[in-house]
Structure formats: C-alpha cells, structure tokens
Amino acid sequence: MSNKFIDTQQLLEVLAISPATLNRYKKRGLIPYIKLGNVHRYDLEKVIRALEYNPVKFR
C-alpha cells in the first residue's frame, strides 16, 4: 500500500466538489486529512475508503 498524499486542489478535482463542500466534509469528519502548518494533505486511498464507508447523503 502506497501513501499518495495530495493537496486540496488535487482532491477537489478528483472528487469534483467545491471548496465549500470539502470544508463541510472535513467539519463532519467524513474526510481524513493531516494538517502541516496551514496546509492540508490528504491520503487519497483513505479518503476514498472513508467516502465509500460513509456515503454522503444528498439533500
């Protein structure tokens, strides 16, 4: 298993979501991330697994 960390912009493109949606997911604890100073990094495999395990409910 390789840890491929990506930045916020890359994650937004992969998931095709807006920055506001990403912030909402992070606040709800749906997306795992690490914070290095003011920079957030995401392990893409863990993000995908987390979203598969906890599917986001749409309004």
Automatic annotation (TrEMBL):
It comes from Sphingobacterium humi. InterPro entries: DNA-bd_dom_put_sf. SUPFAM superfamilies: Putative DNA-binding domain. This is Helix-turn-helix domain-containing protein.
